[in-house]
Structure prediction request, 431 residues.
Amino acid sequence: MARKSKNNDFKKYLKFILPIVILILLVVLFFSYPSNNSSSSTTNSSKDGSEKFSFSLFGNNDNSCKYNDGENCLNTQSKCICKGEQICSPDRSKSDNLGCYTPFCGDGYIDDGETSGTCCIDAGCSGSLICDANLNQCVKPQCPFDCCVNDAQYQDKFCLQYYSCNSLRNSCEPDDSDNDAFPDYLEIQTGTDRFNPDTDGDSVLDGYDNHPLFNYLPRIYNFDWRYGKEWLIFTKKFEFDLTLSEDIVTSYEKMPKINLISRDDSQLKEVAQIMNNLADAEGYNDADKLMMVIAFSRSFNYDYTKLNFNKPLPDWANFPMETIIKKEGLCADSAVMAVALLKEMGYDTKYLVGPCYEPDTGSWHAIVGIPFVEGITLDGSERYLTYNGKKYYYLDATSRDYSGNIFYSTTSKNDFGTTYCPANNFVVSDD
Ligand SMILES: [Ca+2]
Ligand SMILES: [Ca+2]
Ligand SMILES: [Ca+2]
Ligand SMILES: [Ca+2]
Prediction:
């Protein structure tokens, strides 16, 4: 009886205890399910790497990263663990919930291994170099000008064909291979030779030649004037013809007004030869030869249109041949012409300039300085200046409108005398 009773007690005990055990298990199950995950997902890790679901029979849930509660890879390293190439950097805007981040070149952060050499997009460049984002390379900055060739600071930028870089101005300027004032690209367009400064051989550089491909039909220029030993009493008429191409005549107006006296001019050489021949035919001494040329110069008209050009001389004066062809000019034109022509004839002449005062304040006068030569008679009133130990006598080559004594003297006030343009103020102005 007792055994039966014992068996019944156990059954009663099971009936009582089993529901309690099952109830406890259900309660444990319920609390082991994460409260923030109400979905029925059974995946145990999301793409951000966090543990979404864990099952523990014993209800121990501390192994998952509670990022909603502020846990991250930095402050809870044991649970919030970054994976693979991720780094822990909760401050970055694109970090995941755990504060993990996968760095890449170009993300704006300098990470381990990123230098100017490996990732200049993030790490930047040293010195004046800049990062080329397409190449991810440090390069010199692009030249900001027309051109920068072999410039240490900038990437080289070259000029188009037939242009070269002026390194002082960083600008592309046209090539002129033969230095004839005619750029290569224009020579190619025109058909002239870019390696021959005078394609048609008419003595006019291509750049100043109205017809650079052919010698334009020449024209005859006639000159006549008078000179005599007894000045204004007995005179001899001289004359000569000069054959000049129109291209030569127009070239003087195109050329820059530099080296007016020193420029090598084959036409002026021809005139000098004519003058020497004319004087030699008369058996003239040096003094008469000089005066014959001065008389030639003084036969020209005074160019009143240039009268108001009160500029320093002679940068605005004409070329000697220009004055000869026009047969007119100011004192500067006549003096430049006479000095250059007499030099070609073998005389050591100087171009002299000096200021003139009342009533024409600010104006200048230009005259010729000549050395003493055979046949000159001096009366003591003549003026001269000493230059390099040599006396140069004043000679006024300006037009017949100012006729008078040829020599510039203290008494020749009608001839730009000392009151008007003080003789002591003349200086040598060679060009
Ligand atoms: Ca040229
Ligand atoms: Ca040429
Ligand atoms: Ca020519
Ligand atoms: Ca020509």
Q: What stands out?
A: Helices lie at 2-32, 120-123, 184-190, 246-254, 266-282, 286-298, 320-326, 331-344. The two ends are 154 Å apart (CA to CA). The chain has eight helices and 15 strands.
